[in-house]
Amino acid sequence: MKVVSLFRLGELEDKLKETFPQVEFKFIKKAKNIPNEDRQSLDILIGYDGNLDETLLEDCPNLKWIAWYATGVNSLPLKYIKEHNITLTNSRGVQAKQLSEFIIAFILDDYKKMRTSYINQQNKIYDSKMTGRRLNGDCILFLGTGAIAQRTAKLAKAFDMKVIGVSKSGKQKKWFDEVHKIEYLSDLLEKGDIVINSLPETNETIHLLKYEDFEKMKASTMFINVGRGTIVEEDTLIEALSNNEIRHAYLDVFEKEPLTPDNSLYELDNVTITAHITGNDQGINEDVTKIFIKNLEHFLNYSSVIENEVDLEKGY
């Protein structure tokens, strides 16, 4: 059994070798640098490389499993992976720790007017009358009720916030006051003081939000997007923000990344931008490797995995 990593894992490399002495491990910085002899003989690919494509996978005739060290898998050739019966796992649940903290940080930054305080500091203005607002009693409307939303909902409950979610199934989840099927989203938008997208990118979620959806939100609503930028067409989002259909947006993901310097989002005063960093976490490799170890132990015995397998039909 040969495992090839798409990036270096530091001390975790020795741990993997010690845990599985019967497995051959190769640790390579990028997918394009994998030697042809390793492509021909590898059984498992682990790690993350945004440039991993179908062409490279075609060079790996024995590939049985991709252990993806990220949550989103929409950049991968899912059709090819499915057609060739390749197992795909991801880091679902691990990044929720960091993402949920970012979401709460965005909310507190906005409610406590930290941005305004920083601008005042830069301009040497001392405004002791500035007043923030409390979180308690306000409502978060989550698009998606997966690991990110569930962990954030738990944190939000510490601030006595109300949490509503929409999902494909409408199944009730812990920490949520209400969960509805996503087909009822239009009727729920006016309830959210904060609307947060944490949905993955699928055929059903691309451009899910239309201009009229922003019209239905409160003028005081804050929109946070840590899911996928394709949830709303960029021009539609810019128009809604320019027309002040909502009060503010915190955006970490975008329809086209990276943002170019001439992007109109940079010109808007009611937008806070982060550069797709909410999933960056110094401890993530260790956490995902723990999942990989558990799965590899099972895979070596039963040729299957037991945790975080991606549904290739759904794309998550």
UniProtKB/TrEMBL annotation:
Domain D-isomer specific 2-hydroxyacid dehydrogenase NAD-binding span(s) in chain numbering: 105-277
Record family assignment: Belongs to the D-isomer specific 2-hydroxyacid dehydrogenase family.
Short name of one Pfam family: 2-Hacid_dh_C
D-isomer specific 2-hydroxyacid dehydrogenase catalytic domain boundaries: 36-301
Name of the protein described by the UniProt record: Hydroxyacid dehydrogenase
Lineage: Bacteria, Bacillati, Bacillota, Bacilli, Bacillales
GO MF annotation list: NAD binding; oxidoreductase activity, acting on the CH-OH group of donors, NAD or NADP as acceptor
Transmembrane segments: none
InterPro entries in the cross-refs: D-isomer_2_OHA_DH_cat_dom, D-isomer_DH_CS, D-isomer_DH_NAD-bd, NAD(P)-bd_dom_sf
Entry keywords, A to Z: NAD, Oxidoreductase
